[in-house]
Specification:
It contains eight helices and 15 strands. By secondary structure, the chain is α+β, with helices and mostly antiparallel strands. The chain binds N-(5'-phosphopyridoxyl)-D-alanine. It is an enzyme of class 2 (transferase).
């Protein structure tokens, strides 16, 4: 696989980053994960807008213009022959002597990209649905910034799998914030789609925004508000959204079946129209 590191396209074994890189030492870095379908990038400009927001919230320097970043994304897709999969892009505050203070602004940011070819459209889990386990949300208070501080989400997913589930739903004060790497949604008995409103509590998912738009276009009633874990367990349907899972039905929460315990029609329909639109 060819990866991109600070201006160079290299075989992955030859790519290097300084041990003093602040991404490595302080998780002082932000990232984006963009979907590739049929060799095309999905929602690229929305990912760039979110990247800009993450950068500015942390006073990080932009590594390149959107046009240049687009060219790098396209070049990697071509060089690696990716038809379906993901592109990961990370921007760090660069390499500097270890210090809790940010280094001088002249320190160049590090920019790393790599591709992950994988089937996204025809995931078996999309047919069976996934099981989630609730885990306390112990992340920091700025989850709207897409930082690489992913240790807690990683621990939460490990805990969920230990409990026999596939992923975790993170819960704070009785309300669901989101999944470990996806946004959480439920559908009530009355057919209303409920999803957590945007705030510092959750990542502002690009897929969430696209799916809400498609849901509204297809006439669904949408409520953007916090929902409790109990409300989720009593819902008719549940699902998650992300660049890697699109729309993924949730069939149980903490071992309790959601609806009849199979993927719900709203989630399945939204997955279909999301893929149709992306194609
Ligand atoms: N994760 N919430 C969290 C905490 C996430 O990490 C992600 C994305 C999402 C969904 O955002 P989007 O629809 O823009 O992918 C929500 C990526 C896919 C990851 O970390 O791999």
């Amino acid at each position: 696989r060819i990866v991109y590191v600070n201006g160079a396209y290299l075989p992955e074994a030859e790519a290097t980053i300084s041990v003093f890189d602040r991404g490595f030492l302080f998780a002082d870095a932000v990232y984006e994960v963009t979907t590739v379908l049929g060799g095309k990038l999905i929602d690229f400009h929305a990912h760039m807008a979110r990247l800009d927001r993450s950068l500015s919230e942390l006073d990080l320097t932009a590594p390149a213009s959107h046009d240049d970043l687009l060219a790098i994304h396209r070049e990697l897709v071509t060089r690696n022959g990716v038809d379906e999969g993901l592109i990961y892009m990370q921007v760090t505050r660069g390499a500097a002597d270890r210090d809790f203070l940010f280094p001088a602004k002249v320190t160049p940011p590090s920019l790393v990209l790599f591709t992950q070819a994988m089937a996204l459209r025809d995931k078996p889990a999309a047919r069976t649905g996934i099981r989630v386990a609730s885990v306390p949300d112990l992340r920091w208070g700025r989850r709207d910034i897409k930082t690489v501080q992913l240790l807690y989400p990683s621990m939460a997913k490990m805990e969920a799998v230990r409990q026999g589930a596939d992923d975790a739903w993170l819960v704070e004060d009785g309300v669901v914030t989101e999944g470990t790497s996806n946004n959480a949604h439920i559908v009530t008995a009355g057919g209303t789609l409920i999803t957590r409103n945007l705030s510092h509590a959750i990542l502002h998912g690009i897929t969430r925004a696209a799916v809400l738009r498609l849901a509204a276009d297809s006439g669904l009633t949408i409520e953007e508000r916090p929902f409790t874990l109990d409300e989720a367990k009593a819902a008719r349907e549940a699902f998650v959204t992300s660049a890697s899972s699109f729309v993924m039905p949730v069939i149980s929460i903490d071992g309790m079946a959601i609806g009849d315990g199979t993927p719900g029609p709203v989630a399945q329909r939204l997955r279909e129209i999301y893929i149709e639109e992306a194609d």
